[in-house]
Amino acid sequence: MTVNHKKYVGFIIKRDWIISTVWLLALGAFAYLLAVLYPSLFPDETSMQGIIATTNTPPMIAMMGPVYGIDAINIAILMSQECLIWFAIAVIVMNIFFVNRYTRTDEELGRHEMLVALPLGRLTNSSTIVFLSFMLNFIAAGFIAFLTLASQMDGVNLCGALIYGFSIGMQGFVFAMFTLLAAQLFSTARDSMGIAFALLGVSYLLRAYGDMNNHWLSYVSPMGLGLKVEAFYNNNFIPILILFAEAMVLAGVALWINSRRDSGAGTFPARKGKAHAGKFLQTPLGFAWRLSRNGFYAWAIGIFVFGVSYASVIGELDNFVEGNEMIKLMLQGEGGTAQLVDAFIALLNRLMALLVAIPMINCINRVRNEEKRGRIELIAATAVPREKIMGSFIIISVFEIVMLTFLGAFGLYVAADSSELVAFDELLKAAFVHLPALFVMLSFTIFLVGLFPKFTSLIWALFAYSFIIFYFGKLFNVPNFAAKLSPFDHIPKLPVQEFSVAPILIMSALACFFCALGVYYFGKRDLNK
Predict the structure, then answer these.
(1) Closest by alpha carbon to 522, among 397, 396, 434, 391?
(2) Which of 122, 255, 392, 423 has its CA 20 to 30 A from that of 275?
(3) Running DSSP on this structure, what letter comes out for residue 419?
């Protein structure tokens, strides 16, 4: 590595160390937390065999992967089967953002052009990203392996922990290199990131189909291949080597393309638009929709598929819950199947509300992103008030919230209708009751963009806190006052609890207040502040 390469590595690390450190600490914390938690959830072989019987069904195999180690089941094998795929998805998302941030986004903003004007080689940026991506995933893998081993869970050993961690890390590295390749092929950061996330979805679906049908497609998917390690059982290291080889091939192709294309341009030229914009696109609302529509379509499909996937277990809910202490605590359902179904529906709708919050937050944060790129300034220089620009994004966000919530409920109904245990109107009520909580999240995002634009990332802290409270609140008996810091915890859990109008009105009023405040100050403050 030349002196310039070393300096450039240090430059990227200086820019990224806070974000990457937060990701690594969060991953490590969850890995250790689950490793400590699992033994108390499944204290004996009977409970483990019960959950294994549940997960060894087509819907659950599609969701989490194939079951293995039934003849020698222990808590480490069980945790690996249920958690490895979710950690892999988290690491993959981390890698997509990391690579896209320092490749295509930097080129789109003109930063890369300033850097290549210095005495740096044409491939310095891409080769540095390959090296840092590998190191980031190596550290993530080692950190997860170390903390899993430190938990001293039954069945955990050094070899199994390393296989577990590096399967997660290598899946992340493959997707990092695919994102690097996408950055060479497409000319915008939005396109390259969209293709990377599309591959993530395709990889998950290929794995699901392959695992359910014992088909070779499971080996084509990087995620399917990563699950073949059978951590803490066979400890098969070969899939990790194959994933590493795939990543290096992708890296080689990306570097080869990078050496032949112009800086700032993609191999595939951007699709030419119309010579003249339509009347709708000439409006602030049309501008906001044009920026948001592709993401909305992707999330619409994802939310619907999510509802269908989870609702498919409703017909066998008794078996799903039996022996699964984690689900029992989260559901807090007792008695017959009907009450279990109600509790399960309430749980799924809250989870889907949290998922709907992601594209909603992204939509409002686009105002800040467009501001940093100087595009909002161009619009505001015309006769369009800034309040109207923000209002357009708010309208699109509200539309996304309503439509995605409906699609989630519809997905639940489509998959669960055959069980005759759910009614569509009840599903809609249980889903739409979360709208005030989503509006609070929306208004807080607007408030940050309007008053504290440099701290817009704080909304993700609130989202993460809400998710942790949802997932672990009941498991760790989190105090009520701490749980109430999440807006979603104020929502009545229909159809288990009775509807209460007071929290709905209070949260709606808070949402209106913060929204009005954010819009007002966005119209008054300096742009690019």
Answers:
(1) 391
(2) 392
(3) G
Tokens of 26: 């969060």
pTM passes above 0.90: no
CA 359 to chain centre: 10
Q: Which one, of 88, 255, 109, 52, lies nearest residue 175 by Cα?
A: 88
DSSP, res 407: H
> Average pLDDT in the 278-291 region?
84
Total residues found in the chain within this entry:
529
Question: If you average pLDDT over every residue of the chain, what do you get?
Answer: 84
Q: How far apart are CA 34 and CA 165, in angstroms?
A: 14
Q: Are 219 and 210 in contact (CB under 8 A)?
A: yes
443 within 8 A of 339, measured Cβ to Cβ: no
The closest of 217, 224, 261 to 239, measured between CA atoms, is 224
Half-sphere exposure of 226 toward its Cβ, with a 13 Å CA cutoff?
37
pLDDT greater than 90 at residue 524: no
Q: What is the structure's pLDDT at 336?
A: 44
Closest CA to 127 of 197, 177, 199, 166: 177
Let me know: does 229 contact 149? Beta carbons within 8 Å: no
Give the pLDDT score at 323.
Answer: 52
- Give the C-alpha separation, 244 to 170, whole Å: 6
Q: What is the DSSP letter of 499?
A: P
Query: Which token pair is 408?
Result: 């989630």
Burial class from Cβ neighbours inside 10 Å (0-12, 13-18, 19+) for residue 25 reads exposed
One-letter amino acid at 349 equals N
Q: Are 305 and 204 in contact (CB under 8 A)?
A: no
pLDDT in tens, 57-76: 776 787 788 888 888 888 88
How many whole angstroms separate alpha carbon 357 and alpha carbon 370?
A: 20
pLDDT tens digits, 131-145? 999 999 999 999 999
For 218, the token pair is: 């499971």
**Exposed/middle/buried for residue 6 (C-beta within 10 Å: 0-12, 13-18, 19+):** exposed
Cis previous bond, 239, omega within 30: no
Residue-level pLDDT at 511: 94
**pLDDT tens sequence across 108-126:** 777 766 776 666 677 888 8
Would you state the structure tokens that stand for residue 507, as one six-digit string?
């949260």
Contact 67, 52 (CB under 8 A): yes
Which 8-state DSSP code applies to residue 382? T
Are 528 and 371 in contact, with CB atoms under 8 Å apart?
yes
| DSSP secondary structure letters along 121-138 | -TTHHHHHHHHHHHHHHH
Q: Which residues of 134-149 are buried (b: 16+ CB within 10 A; e: fewer)?
A: bebbbebbbbbbbbbb
How high is the pLDDT of residue 292? Answer: 87
Q: Rounded CA gap, 387 and 395, in Å?
A: 12
Q: What is the pLDDT of residue 315?
A: 58
* Contacting residues for 52 by C-beta, under 8 A, at least 6 apart: 67, 70, 73, 78
